[in-house]
Amino acid sequence: MFYRPSEGHGLPHNPWNAIVAPRPIAWISTRGTMGDNLAPYSFFNAVAYTPPQLVFASTSAKADREGTKDTTAQIRETGVFCVNIVSHDLIEAMNATSAPLPAGADEFEHARVAKAECETIPCPRAAEAPASLECRLVQIIPLLGKANYLIHGEVIGIHIRPDCLQDGRFSPPDRLARLGYRDYCSVTETFELARPEDT
């Protein structure tokens, strides 16, 4: 089939949500004047090595947050945030934090997620995450469409759970990813591939 997104797809579910996949999940924690917040975002990736940088997109709004979500509102306020990586054992807690709670509600408490303090920024992190990336905001870029924003951050501190370091490499038991719709996957099988310049 072929379709133009501006004209609709005619399917019961939007295929765009599942075409670019799997997508890693940024479980983002923030702290603002209204309290602590924790929410998952699957439009997320690393974009540079030196200095390490990442981006994620916030794509809708809440009535109590003036045209955006709690996460973006608090990043605008403070200029910092933490990206927590999600493993399969945290999937139920991660899903619980996606609930549209009122602004100011603490998703850490709602989902019973253990909280720890970051080292370089005034922000909480998910204590049991395989890794947590402390970020300083670089820019918030408005995207096409209503309430669509790209948040660009520089990673200035990295926490790695001790059991996720194997022979000097970051090697968590699994990595959770979103496939679109309500579909997820847990990546447990990996392989190495030599680049042409390695031979």
From TrEMBL:
Pfam families linked to this entry: Flavin_Reduct
InterPro entries, per the entry: Flavin_Rdtase-like_dom
Residues of the Flavin reductase like domain: 18-172
SMART domains attached to this UniProt entry: Flavin_Reduct
Protein name, per record: Flavin reductase family protein
Organism ancestry: Bacteria, Pseudomonadati, Pseudomonadota, Alphaproteobacteria, Rhodobacterales
